[in-house]
Amino acid sequence: MTKDKAKIALITGSSRGLGKNTALALAKKGVSVIVTYRSNEAEAKTVVSAIEELGSKAIALQLDTANTKTFDEFVTNVKQSLQDTWQAEQFDFLVNNAGMGVYAPFAETTEDEFDHLFNTHVKGVFFLTQKLLPLLKDGGRIVNLSTGLARFTSPGYAAYASAKGAIEVLTRYLAKELGQRQIAVNAIAPGAIETDFGGGVVRDKPEINSFIASQTALGRVGVPDDIGGAIVALLSEENRWVNGQRIEVSGGQSL
To answer: Which of 43, 61, 213, 233 has CB 3.0 to 4.6 Å from 15, enough for a Cys bridge?
Structure first.
């Protein structure tokens, strides 16, 4: 990824957190970004401005990944934006990042909580990716966000981790079925990260932060730059032969 071969990435949920970090990390490599946000347009516009300050182009589009009925309109908006902003018909990278966590013990998880998690993390990813396929270049890349919790366990995340487990299986199937178009598909699985995810519990509660650090081989909790940088590296031309993989980025948590 060099400035003389500018590429375009679409990153869902990139107005904050890991999505924002990934967007800025890609922009530093000269990649243009389609930022999506669910409700906070002001946050998204701030990210767009930051990307532009780095010398890359960006736009912000509203998207609720839990509501598949909005996807046709969103895809139409993406197609128009590609033409208007980049005079392009397709984009290069899709990063399915948007999501949220629900902390609830298995015995207390409600059907509404379960449905919201699976609509956002599984159904939304499945059908949004499907509808965006005509706009994704042959030879492009897809990165799906999973979680370390799909490998190790922490009580209270049964539904969330199960949804991400489904994404890891979907990643392998996408890699197999899209291989004929030379599209590589992988999953990045972060460990515990200091963000506002889950109400900022890892970032803001010293006792939880310290415990996780003690369970991590590299001796600390992850920060957003650890994940954004890993996604950028995975999307680089040097990693073009990595395909159908679950790559955990956790510093060696719970080994």
So the answer is: 43
Cα(35)–Cα(208) distance, integer angstroms: 31
Give the pairing type, strands 58-62 and 32-37: parallel
How far, in Å, CA of 176 to CA of 172, rounded?
Answer: 6
What are the boundaries of each domain within the chain?
A: 3-193+225-249
3 CB contacts (<8 Å, ≥6 apart)? 30, 55
Q: Is residue 45 predicted with pLDDT exceeding 70?
A: yes
Which residue type occupies 235? L
Reduced to 3 states (helix: H, G, I; strand: E, B; else coil), residue 249 is strand
Contact yes or no for 13/97 (Cβ under 8 A): yes
Helix 158-178, helix 111-118: angle, nearest 10: 30
pLDDT of the residue at 5: 63
CATH fold label, 3-193+225-249: Rossmann fold (3.40.50)
